[in-house]
């Protein structure tokens, strides 16, 4: 018997997207890309800004304030703008140049990196999704994913996790070591870092409304991800976000996801479970969580994160 996921191909390479995007005669988007999505969003200047230099600085008063602001940002918004992070502007610019060069390659060259599973170290292509009626749609985007060690971002992640643990009074030594663009979703992992080429398009959900998440040049937009929400027993929020297309310019974003070891089983921290009187999320091996998110999610259905929530017994 075929499973419900047999027709779901998240790594299928579709060469028609670039041809359509480059076409000067395109008058209508083909139906396979027409996944209904409301693009309206509010503009907000309330998105928190975190000064990384204060988090790692020698001034205890400034560091205490930064830790508090970080914890509040993760609890209230689930997103924040990271400034004074130490990643050179030159390095960011070089990364975008490399991305433009890759996406400009002929389809025959890119297709050799088409992945067959979530564990493949290099993969590129398009992303197909299905709704709860099992209708399949192709997202209007092309991606390249690499599994590699990014030293600077890893340092930023560790310092942010240490600060969150400090704010929640957790043992820092123990816990850190454990036709739309993209529809509404949350990210797996602990923190996700994003920079873009100056073309806005990311929107985040806050208090039931959608807001444009515009970040200044040379800053990094950071969001708390699913495993951080699970680990903090719901204190930090992995909020839904989406990307919308731009009719005039190509939007290029570079995203670095940070998570635990694939073999790690992530559940709520024991100290927080004791404080709350119960675990609010099920524990799950990280690599299984990632695979489930990539192959079993359905637009309009429950997300993998929502499926991990444990509701109190009546």
TrEMBL record:
Record domain Fe2OG dioxygenase: where: 166-260
Pfam families named among the record's database cross-references: 2OG-FeII_Oxy, DIOX_N
SUPFAM superfamilies in the record: Clavaminate synthase-like (SSF51197)
Keyword NADP in record: no
Nucleotide-binding found in the keyword field: no
Alphabetical GO biological process terms: coumarin biosynthetic process; response to molecule of fungal origin
Transmembrane segments: none
Molecular function terms, GO-annotated: 2-oxoglutarate-dependent dioxygenase activity; metal ion binding
Protein family according to the UniProt entry: Belongs to the iron/ascorbate-dependent oxidoreductase family.
Protein name per UniProt: Fe2OG dioxygenase domain-containing protein
The organism of origin for this protein: Salvia splendens
């Amino acid at each position: 018997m075929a499973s419900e996921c047999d027709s779901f191909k998240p790594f299928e390479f579709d060469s028609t997207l670039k041809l359509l995007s480059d076409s000067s005669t395109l008058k209508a988007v083909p139906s396979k890309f027409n996944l209904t999505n409301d693009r309206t969003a509010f503009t907000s200047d309330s998105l928190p800004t975190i000064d990384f230099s204060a988090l790692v600085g020698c001034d205890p008063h400034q560091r205490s304030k930064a830790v508090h602001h970080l914890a509040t940002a993760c609890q209230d918004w689930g997103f924040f703008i990271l400034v004074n992070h130490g990643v050179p502007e030159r390095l960011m610019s070089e990364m975008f140049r490399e991305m433009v060069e890759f996406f400009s390659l002929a389809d025959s060259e890119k297709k050799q990196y088409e992945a067959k599973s979530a564990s493949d170290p290099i993969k590129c292509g398009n992303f197909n999704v299905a709704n709860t009626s099992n209708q399949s749609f192709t997202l209007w985007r092309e991606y390249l994913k690499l599994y590699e060690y990014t030293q600077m971002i890893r340092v930023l992640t560790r310092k942010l996790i240490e600060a969150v643990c400090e704010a929640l009074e957790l043992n820092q030594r123990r816990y850190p070591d454990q036709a739309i663009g993209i529809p509404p979703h949350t990210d797996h992992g602990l923190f996700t870092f994003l920079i873009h080429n100056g073309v806005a398009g990311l929107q985040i959900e806050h208090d039931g409304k959608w807001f444009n998440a515009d970040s200044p040049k040379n800053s990094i937009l950071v969001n708390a991800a699913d495993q951080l929400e699970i680990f903090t027993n719901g204190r930090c929020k992995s909020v839904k976000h989406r990307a919308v297309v731009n009719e005039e310019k190509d939007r290029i974003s570079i995203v670095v996801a940070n998570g635990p070891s694939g073999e790690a089983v992530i559940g709520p921290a024991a100290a927080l479970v004791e404080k709350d009187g119960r675990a609010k999320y099920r524990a799950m091996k990280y690599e299984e969580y990632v695979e489930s998110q990539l192959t079993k999610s359905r637009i309009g259905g429950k997300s993998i994160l929502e499926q991990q929530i444990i509701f109190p017994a009546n």
